[in-house]
Amino acid sequence: MTAHAHSDHHSHGALQMGHHHVSSSQQFLSVLVALLVLTGITVGASRIDFGSANMLIAMAIACIKASLVIAFFMHVKWDTAINKIVFLSSFLFLALLFLFTLVDLTTRRWDSYVNTIRTPVDHGWVQPAPKPDAHH
Amino acid sequence: MTTNIPAIDQHAAPTGGSTNYLNNTSGFWSWASTLDHKRIGLMYLVGTTLAFLAGGLFALLVRVHLWEPDGMLFDNPTYNQVFTLHGAFMVFLFVIPAIPGSLGNMVLPLMLGAKDVALPRLNLLSFYLWLTGAVLATLAIILGGFDTGWTFYAPYSLYTQKAVVTIGLAVFVLGFSSIFTGLNFIVTVHKLRAPGLTWFRMPLFVWALYATSILQVLATPVLGITVLLVAFERLYQVGIFDPRLGGDPVLFEHFFWFYSHPAVYIMVLPAFGIISELVSVHSRKPLFGYKLIAFSSLAIAVISFLVWGHHMFTSGQSTFAMFAFSFLTFFVAIPTAIKEFSWVATIWKGSIALNAPMLYTLAFLIIFAIGGLTGVILGSLSVNIHMHDTYFVVAHFHYVMMGSIALAFFAGLHHWWPKMFGVMYDETIAKIACGIIFVGFNATFLPQFIMGSRGMPRRYATYVPDFQVFHQASTVGAVILGVGIALMVYCFVVSLFQGKKAMVNQWGGVTLDWLTPTPPPLENFHEAPVVTTEVYDYSTLDLSTTRTPIA
Amino acid sequence: MSHDGHHSVVIPAPGPEFVPHTVAHHFDTPVQEFQAAKLGFWLFLATEILLFGGLFAAYFYYHETYAETFRVGGQQLDWQLGAVNTTVLLLSSWTMAMGVRSAQTSQKGKTLLFLGLTVLGALIFLGIKYVEYSAKNQHGLIVFSHLFDGYDQANKQLPWFQDYGGVMKDVPHGHLFFAIYLTMTAIHGLHVVIGAGLIIWVMKGAAKGRFHAGYFLPVDLVGLYWHLVDLIWIFLFPLLYLVP
Ligand SMILES: [Cu+2]
User: The domain B3-12+38-546: what is its CATH number?
Assistant: First the structure.
């Protein structure tokens, strides 16, 4: 920040909200086409068995789609630095929630004493209670 | 940060009959629909104080009940409700909203040289959301109460036949009240700083509120979805927290503490901010390590997202996760210690004024040292396994929440009271109240450290007779504490009616909040301020002009 | 409200079909007002991400725990309807972006047209969602009439999960997938409803000519909200309908 925090405001003499980048219709249309194509690829990729990589592929494509929406439709590409930081940091902190909960869950199988107390099942964790039976 | 504000220097004492934010309009509706940050701050002050008194009453009931090993007042289920009410009221209705809502609202725009917060309507909405939360919480008591503890741990919170959905809704609404306050402060700090008020000329209370706001915005939504999910579990058995349905209650704890550990810093960072201001003004010295304190607030905000699992060491996390969380927890101690040392170094060789705000500040410095260090003890995994859910933990977080945060809040109230109302309280009574509170507080909670380390579990309605002497000492302390707080409230209330006129600049502060008329006018400054000097620069302030009573 | 002779800043209307905008009194300039509101709204969107994030965390937690349940559960959803709904939302995101652009370029008629199309997209989305919920209801995977009946502890039965076809009988805790599906899509659907309401609200303002090149803030903000709704669905679609 410069010595005059308000300087950016005073520099605009025009009685407008400021100078705004206006995207071209052509660009919006290209983004839309890309999003639709990527949706097709998502469906296609889900039909092929890549094992555990399917999740990674699906999420990678979803992230690309999300980036397109954020950058172009939400106009973040031309937005101020602080607005970029604010929105992207929400994903960063969300990643922390994912990281630690999943680290806890997936490393429980390292604790051999837990598995001797609880009956391990093939999906690596226990079924604490019988499932509610379906009835007709 | 002496500033170049001709309008204020020349007309330092507004002429008699001048209007200010208190008297420019009148009538109930002028308050209920106000967009003025100062009036909203006052409404928060009244609301959160009432919540504090209610929470304090529940605390006294708990302490009186525990006079006898078998309990004096309640049956066990009722006791569960009373300690839950104490925790829930104190945490959600007082400690989290109190400082940002009242003093933050009052002072932040003044310190920035702004006419108001950036989004005044949202600010009023925050207050009404707080009020709605308070009404819902009270409604929950009428609808059968709740006995889950303030933590709402699953699966008990899913099964108990009490008004958990209502209090969950209250917490959800209060969460959004807190979010909107934080959001508003962030925007205000970014967009409404006076010309010349660079980031490193901002007072540290502003820095602290800014860091707090980041936490409010990023952590609170997870609490929101957590209490919603608990409500959904009770309404249609989602199953994700319910072990009968294949769910894992540990996931609830992850979600809950993802918010509630950072929430500890939502509570304590504003208190740090107040202390930073007060040690400087009342020692008449620039803050030692200004930038370190500013950055340590941000560091605490970030680190606090990495340590929540230290609340779950006995909950069935993986050993690896416990190791990681314990390891990371120690890092919180670094920025926190930086602050404590900086405050002490600021006082060192300062021109110390032993007035009521400074006495509370000194009490804070002592109590927070104990509260902070016992936190390090509890952060270490192997010790925590033994101390978990004992009175040692209770004593630790009361040294932080009551002893540090509430005392800092009282310190700030005494400090800004003359600014807010233009009147001074009786300094002698205020100092006596401070002494009683300090003695009462330590008498209440020091014995809890001892009995906790000897195995007295928290939240129990009864106990083995060996602990009776500690419980009785604690109860006596709580009564002393209650007397001190009652005296403080009395002192404040009396000052409104009989208090002397305050000085123009009561303590000789040089931040912008002290350079407006007292009390401030509607839009805070008669002439938009321009800041030309560094923060906490006392050299240019002529004390003789500040010591004139307001007209 | 003004004082000391400071008068509020007014942004003039670019044409007779538009109305001027008065900047709120506590801001010095229109830029300051615009940026403050926009930063505030981005912060709000960040809270939405974290609120939904909790649900996604729960999804991943149980996807990891009961992978088979999620795989079989996902097969019970109609991926074709999901794909159609994805397309509808992407199209509506595009019309929204075009609507904001029309407001930025002072094209009143186009603004109303594109915003109207976006609301139409929202309605189609909700209609398809209704069809999907009905199918789940029919197969006893989510029996809405018994949704709030409570857990039957004695018989270990969940009244809203009856699974008439027995499709989930070989996987543990089959109801969990549908509970998570219902919770995520219902909260998302609520956002669709709120979003549509907000769009209708700005359409009223647009009809009065309040939005133009000089002032289009509300259209911009509601647009951001709508794109967020789309953003969340971009992740929901593969996770729920094409369970990886
Ligand atoms: Cu903690």
Answer: 1.20.210.10
Which residue in the block uniquely carries the two structure tokens 């932080």?
B400
* C-beta of residue B52 within 8 angstroms of C-beta of residue B98: yes
The complex's ipTM works out to 0.94
C65/A105 Cβ within 8 A: yes
Q: Give CA separation, C197 vs C95, C164, C200, in Å.
A: 16, 37, 5
Identify which of B312, B275, B334, B259 has the alpha carbon closest to the alpha carbon of residue B96: B259
The 3-class SS string of chain A reads CCCCCCHHHHCCCCCCCCCCCCCCHHHHHHHHHHHHHHHHHHHHHHHCCCCCHHHHHHHHHHHHHHHHHHHHHCCHHHCCHHHHHHHHHHHHHHHHHHHHHHHHHHHHHHCHHHHHHCCCCCCCCCCCCCCCCCCC
Alpha-carbon torsion angle B502, B508, B509, B513, nearest 10 = 30
**Containing structural domain, residue C207:** 44-241
Is C206 part of any domain?
Answer: yes
Q: Which residues of B touch C46 (CB under 8 A)?
A: 217-218
Half-sphere exposure of B171 (CA within 13 A, CB side): 32
Say yes or no to pLDDT of B547 above 80.
Answer: no
Any B CB within 8 A of C7 CB: no
B213 to each of B118, B207, B481, C49, how far by Cα in Å? 14, 10, 31, 17
Beta strands in chain C (DSSP E): 10-11, 21-22
- pLDDT, position B544: 74
Euclidean distance between CA atoms B499 and B518, whole angstroms: 15
Subunit contact C176:B119, Cβ cutoff 8 A? no
Contact C123, C196 (CB under 8 A): yes
Which residues on chain A are in Cβ contact (under 8 Å) with C30?
Answer: 12, 15-18
| Chain A residue at shortest CA distance from C217 | A17
Contact call for B183 and C158, based on CB within 8 A: no
Helix axes B427-453, B407-421, angle to 10 degrees: 160
Q: Are A69 and C234 a contacting pair, CB within 8 Å?
A: yes
- Enumerate the β-bridge partners of residue C215: C212
The distance of A104 to chain B (nearest Cα, Å) reads 5
> Which residue in B378, B399, B223, B375 sits closest to B300, CA to CA?
B375
- Residue B522: CB atoms within 10 Å: 16
Q: Does residue C9 form part of some domain?
A: no
C153/B contact by beta carbon, under 8 A:
yes
With a CB cutoff of 8 Å and minimum separation 6, the contacts of B271 are: B99, B364, B404, B405, B408, B409
User: What's the CA gap between A72 and A85, in Å, rounded?
Assistant: 16
Q: What is the pLDDT along chain C (244 residues), one digit of tens a residue?
A: 334 445 678 998 888 899 999 999 889 889 999 999 999 999 999 999 999 999 999 999 999 999 999 999 999 999 999 999 999 999 999 999 999 999 999 999 999 999 999 999 999 999 999 999 999 999 999 999 999 998 888 888 888 998 898 899 889 899 999 999 999 999 999 999 999 999 999 999 999 999 999 999 999 999 999 999 999 999 999 999 998 8
Q: Is residue C91 part of a domain?
A: yes
Q: Which chain B residue lies closest to A81 (C-alpha atoms)?
A: B190
**Dihedral sign for Cα atoms in the order A57, A63, A67, A69:** positive
Number of domains in chain C: 1
> What is the phi/psi pair of residue C243, to 5°?
-35, 115
Two structure tokens written together for B369: 């040292």
What does the pLDDT read at residue B136? 97
Residue C121's CATH number: 1.20.120.80
Tens of pLDDT, residues B299-350? 999 999 999 999 999 998 999 999 999 999 999 999 999 999 999 999 999 9
Q: Chains A and B: how many Cβ contacts under 8 Å?
A: 77
Separation of alpha carbons B195 and C116, rounded Å: 43
